[in-house]
Design goal:
Structural class: mainly beta
Number of helices: 3
Strand content: 35-45%
Oligomer: single chain
Shape: globular
Radius of gyration: 15 Å
CATH superfamily of the domain at 19-67 and 74-99 and 109-138: Electron Transport, Fmn-binding Protein, Chain A
Bound molecules: flavin mononucleotide
Order of helices and strands: HEEEEHEHEEEE
CATH topology of the domain at 19-67 and 74-99 and 109-138: Pnp Oxidase, Chain A
CATH architecture of the domain at 19-67 and 74-99 and 109-138: Roll
Helix content: 10-25%
Strand order of the largest sheet: 2-1-5-8-9-4-3
Largest sheet: 7 strands, antiparallel
């Protein structure tokens, strides 16, 4: 474990998102993710990196798509809520509706994207999920996005990062 390594990696500027998954057989979930990045203009593609041990991983594969809900700076609590395990129905606490792929779209967020999963690539202890962007909407253009660094050690990364390179 390494606080110093976590501090270093917090200097890679990332946003904070709630990724919605599932939809098949009405089974859905959502989890907080910072490792989300656009990777192609034509076609429009996003990549997210997910730990395959998360319950969201199976649901993502079942549903075949995912949503990316962009959090505002004042939504730290929501980041913490969806950043925890799914012992309860995390979605019961928020307003949402199903999108084109069935994955949940949160109502009160800065912006959101809807993606269809096109590829999957194992990388180290995570899996990269490539998604073709089917739709997107900027709901609150004046709002500031939440930045990963502002979440501190909410994800417990300092307990996961190795202490040397
Ligand atoms: C700020 C923050 C960023 C996170 N980023 C990711 C990420 O990019 N990928 C990932 O797999 N988990 C990430 N997590 C961890 C998951 O959100 C967390 O393990 C969650 O409990 C998984 O949900 P699930 O068990 O309901 O699938 C992050 C957590 C936080 C708080």
């Amino acid at each position: 474990m390494s606080q110093a390594m976590a501090e270093l990696f917090r200097r890679i500027t990332l946003g904070v998102y709630v990724v919605g998954v599932g939809g098949a057989r009405e089974r859905r979930n959502a989890f907080t993710a910072a490792w989300v990045v656009p990777v192609s203009f034509q076609p429009l593609l996003l990549v997210l990196s997910i730990n395959p041990k998360h319950s969201s991983y199976q649901l993502l594969k079942e549903g075949g798509g995912f949503s990316v809900n962009v959090l505002r700076r004042d939504q730290l609590e929501l980041a913490a809520h969806f950043g925890g395990p799914s012992q309860t129905d995390k979605l019961a606490a928020v307003a949402w509706h199903p999108g084109k792929t069935g994955a949940p779209l949160l109502e009160d967020v800065l912006a959101r994207f809807e993606c269809e999963m096109t590829e999957e690539h194992p990388v180290g202890d995570h899996v990269l999920i490539v998604g073709r962007v089917l739709d997107g909407v900027l709901l609150q253009p004046e709002a500031e996005p939440l930045i990963y660094r502002e979440t501190g050690d909410m994800d417990g990364a300092s307990m996961i990062f190795p202490d040397r390179f």
